[in-house]
Structures are given as C-alpha cells and as structure tokens.
Amino acid sequence: MVDLARRLGLAALLAVLAASPAHAVTAASAPPAKDEVTMELRENGVLHVKETVTPAGGTVRRTPLTRTRFDDGHDRVYRISNVKGGSYDGQTLTFKGTVEYDVTGAVTPTASGEELRWFAVSGPVQDAVVTVTGPGRVQNLSCFAGELSAAIACTSASVEETGTTSTFEQQGLGEGQTLTVVVGYPKGATGARPILERRFELSTAFTLNAVTGGSLAALLVLLLGGVGLLYWTRGRDARVVGSESGPVSGHRDGRFSPPDDVRPGQIGTLFDEQADVVDVTATIVDLAVRNFLRIDEQTRQTYDTPDWCLVKLPGAPLGQLLPYERALYDAIFDGRDRVLLSELHGSFAARLTTVRDALYQDVVAQGWFARRPDSTRSRWTTLGLAVVALGVIATVVLAWLTTYGLLGLALIIAGAALAFGAQYMPAKTARGAAALAHTLGFREYLTGASIDDVPAGQRVELFSRYLPYAVIFDSVDRWARVVSAFNGNGRQTDHLYWYQGPAEWDLSRFADSMRTFVMTTSGAISTSRQFRSL
C-alpha cells in the first residue's frame, strides 16, 4: 500500500509539472537542434536560399534583415521573392521544416571583385551550417556571429578543394543573434550591384554645395529678375512723374484752384493707389466746405467723449456730386437730416463698400488707371501666393526625393516677392502720371503756403477750401492752425460757415477740434473694415 501511494504521488507530481506554465514555455520555445542552409549565387546576381530546420515539427518564424544603412544618404535594400514551402508577408518568413526563396541585392562590387553578404541564420538555434556555391572561385571569405554589429567570427569557415563551395558553422546561436556570411568572388562574376534607396534626412535634403548653391543662385536671379521685369513692363507708370514741370499756383484771381479741379478723395486714391480711410474722411470735410452738410461740434463735459453732429443742408445741389460723393452722402444720412458721428454704424458701415467701389471706378473713369488698382493688386497677390504654394510643394518633393530641396526655396522667395510687389503693380496711365505730377506740386504748395499770400477778406473761405486736401497730405495740424489765426475786424472769429462750435467756442480752438474730428471720423470708418486704415 505504501509503495502504491508513493507511485500515485509521483504520478500526480509529474502531471502537475507537465501542466505548469513554465514547463509549457520551455517545451514550446525550445530552439531547433540544427539549421542547415544551402545558398547558391547565380550568374544573374540572385541568391537562391534553401533552409532546413531539424526537427521539423514546429512552426519557424524568421524576420530577415532587408534594409541596412549604406552611406549618409542611402539605405541598402535586400528583396526576398519566390518563397516556396512557407510564406513571407514582407516582414516575417514563416515555414515548417524546409523553405526556399530568392534574395536580390546581396552582391556588392569591390575594388578587387565582388562580395556576397547575407544574414543566413537567425537564432535561436543549437547548430547552424551554411553552404555557399557561386559562379566562380572563392577569393576570400569571412563570417560573423552574434549581434548584427558584432565582429566576432563564427565557429568555423572553410573552402572545399574545388574553390567554389564555402562552408560556415556556428554553435549556440542565441535569441536575436545572426550568422552573417561573406564570400568574395572575381570581378564580373555576376555583374550585380546593390539596391539603394535614398533615405530622407533633413541635413541632406537641403545640402548646400557648389551645385545646389549655384543652381539656387541662378534660379533666384532668373525668378527675381522675372518679377522685376513684370514690374518694369506692367507696374511702372506710363510717364515718369519727375519729367512733369511747371509750378502749381495755390490761387488764381483771388480764388483757390486745386490741380485740374480734382476732389480730395480722388487725389488720395491717385496718390497712393488705395481707397483709404483718410480719403473718405477728407471727402466728408470737403462736403461740408462745399455746403452740402455742416459739422456741429457737440457740447461736452471735461471727461466726455467728443462728438459731432453732421447736418444735411437744404437746397444743396446733389446733382453736382460725383458718384462716390453721392454714395457717401447717402450712406451718412440714409433718410435722416442729421446724425451724430458716434451713431455712424449699421447701414453706414454696410454702404461703405459702395463708396469704396465708386472711388476705384472713378479713378478709372478719369483715365488715370487702365484697371481698378485694387483688382490689379488682388490679381498679382493671388498669383504670388500660388507661386509660394507651388514652391512649398516643390520643396517637399525635392527634399524627399533628392538633395536639391534648396531649389524649391527659390520658388517660395520669388512668389513672396511677387505677392509683396503686387502692392506696386497698379500702373498709372500717361494722364494719371500727369495728374500726379500736379498733385505733388500742389502738396508742396500746401506745406509752404503763407497766409499773407491771400487777401484778408477771402482767407476763411479759401483756406477752408484747402483743408480737405491738407487732410489727405497729413498736414491738417498746420492748416488748421492757419485757419485758427483768422479774425474779423480785429476780433476773434466765432466759427466757420461750415463748422459750428459749442457755446464759448471760437476759432482759436479749431486746430484741436479739427485734429480730433479727423481721428474720430477715421476711427468710425475703420470699424467697417471696408477701407485700409491709416
């Protein structure tokens, strides 16, 4: 009975051990006892491999090394094909017992011949034997075992007496270790070359050398020269302004005469080729000076925000207004007789688009521009941004596929230059250039005119007439101070016919009032975002 109990206990213990996880892992992960690999290097450079694992009961999975670093800019690629007796998914080779496959790209030309290098066996395996035959006599051979970068020789390497067959052996190849075999053959034995693929690296994608640097410089000269040529042929005024001659007089026969009877808004758009906030502000002042409306400064306390009331004057000859002036006049009043400057929003802001378009159409109707300046700028800006986008795409493609990524930057720079230069592409016609020459002369007169040049009885009216133009040329401070100095019969004048101040206000305060009005009006117009701000 005791002997029977001992036997039963031993049997139970063996059953427990057999079913334990540790035993299962050991049994399942036992390495193959022997791995025999036969390799034949054919004359076309293809390496045919046949691998046999003993015992052949379990499934063997290998992860062949198919890519290594070749140089600073390329990887070497080994391509596996024609798998028989197993399967290969591009990464893992799976088989039972025996598998055959072809390798392309394992041969490298050397100074003295050709060299075959292949990672023949992957561990774990107890004994590995590799036999290699080739298209010529073996000139040299070597083998390495262990980690891929290891320089430890394998157990043995030999060549048969015929000189065409090499044999390599390795014992105890562990997990993650590889047996690499290298065999040298005479020059021209296969004529094969390694398969190289460019490896993307930022440092090499934008390589600067004599070729890339010279190409970049030449391309920049070509592209930027093209942008300059575009401006010279398409964006330059038809007539050089400096060729215009003849001083512009400020007044004639006691009456002020702006150049060619051009209105302030027109001058502003002609001058900088932009429909600006200041052009609209100057037009509002001009409408007041010409008796289409009156500006009444509102009474305020010390810390109150200044405000003005724009008053529609009855009987004004609205038919004399230019389209952009009428559009602005209607936007201000919009069915009402008076409106506070602080209340100019809503429909006023929405209708400023019409004012802007009418200003651009006016300068074309005057014959100063062949096309609307804003349309010209938009067209060239769009083209410049398209070139920048093309340059970005070209840079990415060139950097990914070649080392000429710098050439794409030339397109980006040229496109940015074109987009920036679009601001200078609107070109004045000969008539526009002549009007600008007169305008520049008129500006010089405004900055240097003296009150003594005008008869005393006409100074208020005449200097008021020039004030809107001073707004355009940013001379409102100086001109308003001139108007502030006017007096009648030795007494300080209380107000202007077009500008009314609050109680106890006189022209001595006009300069400060006008400066603040211009700034406040420009701010109210800027909130509409329809015009370029100052």
UniProtKB/TrEMBL annotation:
Membrane-spanning segments: 206-232, 380-400, 406-425
Specify one Pfam family.
DUF2207
N-terminal signal peptide: 1-24
Q: Which residues form the DUF2207 domain?
A: 36-184
Using the record's annotation, list all stretches that form the Predicted membrane protein YciQ-like C-terminal domain. Answer: 255-481
The domain of life is Bacteria
Composition-biased stretches (Basic and acidic residues): 250-261
Keywords of this entry: Membrane, Signal, Transmembrane, Transmembrane helix
Renumbered residue ranges of the record's region Disordered: 242-261
**Protein name per UniProt:** Predicted membrane protein
Q: Which organism is it from?
A: Microbispora rosea
